[in-house]
Amino acid sequence: MYNIVTLGESVLTKNSIMVPEIDDELKHFIEGMFDTMYEGKGIGLAAVQVGNPLRLFITHSPKDMPRVFINPVIVETALEEDIYEEGCLSIPGINADVKRPYAVKIQAWNERGKPFALDADRLLARVIQHEYDHLNGILFIDRLESKKRDRLLKSYKRKSRA
What we know:
There is one protein chain. The chain has 162 residues and is of the alpha+beta class. The chain has one domain: Peptide deformylase (Peptide Deformylase, Alpha-Beta Complex), CATH 3.90.45. Helix content is 28%, strand content 27%. The protein has 3 helices and 7 strands; from the N terminus they run H-E-E-E-E-E-E-E-H-H. It has helices at residues 24-39, 122-135, 146-161, and strands at residues 44-46, 56-59, 67-77, 81-86, 96-101, 103-109, 115-121. The strands form 2 sheets. It has a 5-stranded antiparallel β-sheet with strand order 1-2-3-6-7, with helices on both faces. The longest helix has 16 residues, at 24-39. The protein is globular and about 45 Å long. It starts with 23 loop residues before the first helix and ends with a helix.
């Protein structure tokens, strides 16, 4: 298990670096990420959220299997968008409606070093986009209109002082 990095930590705003190799150390790290995500009751977690700036994230959304995305690239997004309430383990207690493409196509490597492509829609597509954003230093609140973001940040600061 790892500690989750929270809003205000600079690592969350930086671009992550490519995973150079998939070895036993990385596999052990991924296991710890799953433990951390499950403990936090999350459905996705990027390596940067536990302080490791690698281009790696995991997902386990309802009605789907656990997935590992190493050095992912979103190669296509749907034109159709939808709005859904998002939260983030790195910004506990804050949720907001975010508009994102309804579906994505992503290419990545799994924990066994095998390349794959995945077409995802609905919740899985949203989780993938949310975690992919983390790899590029983007938080879901960065996708909000500025007044709403400012209001949420004030609320978060009040809660985190309490």
